[in-house]
Amino acid sequence: MTNSATAANRGTRTGANAGKFLRLALKLDAVVTAVNGLAYLVAAPVLSDLFDISATRLRGVGVFLLIFGVLVWLVGTRPAVSRGAVGLVVAVNVIWVVESLVAAATGLGLGDPSVIARVWIVLQALVVGLFAVLQLMGLRRQQS
């Protein structure tokens, strides 16, 4: 095999691996997000007492997370992953992180959440931020 054929073959494998990495990042995000949404829906009364956040608000967040998780799954399982769709997923994740950190610090939109809620919100923001970083890495790898 010539050097150019070897390089082309390596490039194909790298592109395929980049696609797998991006799909994995999207699917992990989708599953964690949807499971979290289901937990908010099913356990809203218990979490409301623990977090000092209304069960109605928790259910609303749960519905959003469940729908978003399904949409992210669809993005990650399409035959060709849309760069625009991934960009939108990353943007929503970044907005989630910023709003979560503001809410944890100020209680904005939540009333006066408990310390446990504030810690949970920050931990969630870190996980969502990690998903956004992994998805951006996957996009960049696909470009190479």
How would you describe this protein?
The structure is a single chain. The protein is mostly helical and 144 residues long. The protein has one domain. Helix content is 86%, strand content 0%. The protein is built from five helices and no strands. The protein has helices at 3-42, 44-51, 55-77, 83-106, 115-143. The longest helix has 40 residues, at 3-42. The two termini are 23 Å apart. Mean pLDDT is 91; it is low at 5-13.
Note the beta-strand portion: under 5%
Task: Tell me about the largest β-sheet.
Answer: none
Overall 3D form = elongated
SSE pattern, N- to C-terminal: HHHHH
Kindly state the percentage of residues in helix: over 70%
Number of domains: 1
Mean pLDDT: 91
What structural class do helix, strand and pairing data support? Answer: mainly alpha
Number of strands: 0
Sum this structure up briefly.
The protein is an all-alpha fold and 144 residues long. It contains five helices and no strands.
Question: How are the elements arranged and paired?
Answer:
Layout: H1 3-42, H2 44-51, H3 55-77, H4 83-106, H5 115-143
Helix pairs in contact: 1-3, 1-5, 2-3, 4-5
Name the descriptors.
mainly alpha; 86% helix; 0% strand; elongated; membrane; transmembrane helix
